Amino acid sequence: MSHETWDAQAAAYSLGALDGRELAEFERHLAEGCGQCDFALVQSAEALVLLSAELSPAPPPPGVREALTSRLSAEQGRGTRTRESAPPVPHGSVPASRGIPRPPPGRVQPSPTLDTRRQLLRTWLRWSVGAAAAMLVGAFLAGGFVAMHYEARLGQMTRQAIAERDKLRAEIAALQDRAAPYQEVVDLLRDPAARVLIMRGAGPSPQARGRVVWLERSGGRLVVDNLPPAPVGKAYEAWTISGGKPRPAGVFQVDAGGDAVHSLPAAAGPVDVFAITLEPAAGVPAPTGPIVLASR
Amino acid sequence: MKGLAPPSAMRIVKGGMAGDGGELIARMAGRDQSAFGPFYDRYASLVHPLISRIVRDRADAADVLQEVFWESWQAAGSYDPSRGSPEAWIVMRARARAIDRVRSVRRRGETFVAPLDEGMAPSTPTGPDVADAVSDRSIVQGLLARLSDSQREVIELAYFGGLTQTEIADRLKQPLGTVKTRMRMGLERLREALKAERS
Q1: What are the chain B neighbours of A63 within 8 Å (beta carbons)?
Q2: DSSP string for residues in B5-60
Q3: What ipTM was predicted for this assembly?
Q4: What is the count of residue pairs from A and B with beta carbons less than 8 Å apart?
Q5: How many beta carbons lie within 10 A of that of residue A56, not counting itself?
Q6: What is the pTM of this model?
Q7: Residue of A230, B7, B62, B189 with fewest CB within 10 Å of its CB?
Q8: Are the C-beta atoms of B85 and A47 separated by less than 8 Å?
Q9: How far is B102 from chain A (nearest CA, A)?
Q10: Do B9 and A15 touch (CB under 8 A)?
């Protein structure tokens, strides 16, 4: 490869436009230490600065500098707190051991006899047993208190976690329920035999829109949006019309946003038109209400 | 170079090739917070027009500007004066972040796909952006006017539009080799202009 090829790649690379296999090749070439390309990249970067400097001035918004200064102060604050939270322990200032208490100085004799030593031992023993018992009770109480506190806290955290988990599960289930009908539409669209028909709003709801994804052999799905919710006691009924004869294709309701996905059963023969009318909630065998959406 | 940039912008570029900018970055690398304000004041007016040109939205441009300077503060230690001027360092970061933002906005909007051509010449500009859109065209009268139309087109699509060479070739319906040649020739002209500017 002549270096001219690398020159072209260096130019594209400077502009962030090199892609695919050539990008990998060029980066490898750079990593091998090509001084010529390296120099070209540095020069191009400088030339592109000129391009930026030539753009018409656009003063930076005043809030940005303040926001950055605040972030910087916050970072400094965090840094200071971190240092304060772990103060260095000065050498040679380790606290004295509190392991064995000394007996009261007044009870110590400069040259104790056997009796006085026994007395001393008994005193110390009594003191130490008492102290140990007190420490045990204290430790037990403190341990119990700490355990209770943490148990309560852990219990609270567990309850919160369970509540969060249940809430998320419910949200996922609701999303899956909402997504499922649309997934069915997508699955239908994968079939090469699927037809897509546009439905336009008519009569009382000109703003409504609809699509039918239709397979002659197995039926299809009707996707509706912007259709106002049916009045109380009413529902929308779908019709497949062949040779001017409408056949009922199920009743459905729309959600508060005016959306619905409705499953259409297969018709006996080829369908000419799909239509939707407003009917009594239970549905009717032949249309009686106004057409709100129709294909063609 | 007559009638090119606003004098302030040229001063930044010429004066910044060495010296103060590099010192500020070095102090920032040493976590000297007092260097940050002057660094921002020095370079914000250089990179903000570039970011605005790429993202085409005031709020997004302000976000990206902040992001770029915050990253510069954090990455100041990585600046190597032998690898280029402070201007090139910050401009490269700004361009990359702005392109990232444009791409993420495109990914986010399911229905909104802004054609790049709109960024080049908005068809129905409204409000205060009218002035921006018109004045952006003034680049063509400056440095880019040294380039042929076809060179300018590929450089704009790549540098301001964030398209790769393959995407540019597809868009312009030109062979990839032609696009590469135009980019190389165009950049060479820009480098010549830089030499002339420095001398």
Answers
A1: 62
A2: S-HHHHHHHHHTSSSHHHHHHHHHHTT-GGGHHHHHHHHHHHHHHHHHHHH--HHH
A3: 0.78
A4: 171
A5: 19
A6: 0.51
A7: B7
A8: no
A9: 14
A10: no
